[in-house]
Amino acid sequence: MRIVAGSARGRRLAVPPGTGTRPTSDRTREAVFGRLDAWRAVDGAEVLDLYCGSGALALEALSRGAAGAVGVEADRVAARVAADNARTLDLPLSVVQDRVSRYVAAPGPSFDLVLLDPPYSLDGPELAQVLGAVAARCRPDAVVVVERSARSPEPVWPAALDPLEPRTYGETRVWFAELASPS
């Protein structure tokens, strides 16, 4: 596993051993970030990477010019690997070891780009609850990205997020949404 583009291009990432994490493939990350770059959603962004695992998504964003990133991971081993990857690459990823649902429900900073790569086993109602809390942490013009199995149904989006056209990459489907305009 490696960083696909930007200042850390080609640098390898450690993957948490035996934690059940499912790293996003290089091909999928390249496609997702190509789309985000076209929308100008990465450069200068404050990024939130939920269920961050190795930190690959946040680190990819930082390598491509994001200003800063927070990664949230419940698994202690995976959180340590993500923090180690950030130190090795000298990229400003702050890793928080906590349950995602608790982190997003608490008061805190807002973000321009939110990346969610939850375990495929995470049920729809829990994901919907997390997305509702995420919407409250989004800045105007924020983009939210949800990665799931291609066999998973579309997430239930809160009214504060407008879904965009999803993309499928092999066994992975990626949904995109933006903060809804106030009516």
TrEMBL record:
Q: What is its EC number?
A: 2.1.1.171
Which gene holds the coding sequence for this protein?
rsmD
Per its UniProt entry, what is the enzyme's top EC class, as one word?
transferase
Alphabetical list of InterPro entries matching this protein? DNA_methylase_N6_adenine_CS, RNA_MeTrfase_RsmD, SAM-dependent_MTases_sf
Question: CDD domains attached here?
Answer: AdoMet_MTases
Its keywords, alphabetically, are: Methyltransferase, Transferase
Query: What is the protein's name according to its record?
Result: 16S rRNA (Guanine(966)-N(2))-methyltransferase RsmD
Q: Which GO terms describe its molecular function?
A: 16S rRNA (guanine(966)-N(2))-methyltransferase activity
Under PANTHER family, the record lists: METHYLTRANSFERASE
What domain of life? Bacteria
Q: Record's Pfam families?
A: Cons_hypoth95
Q: Where is this region: Disordered?
A: 1-26
Species in which this protein is naturally found: Aquipuribacter hungaricus
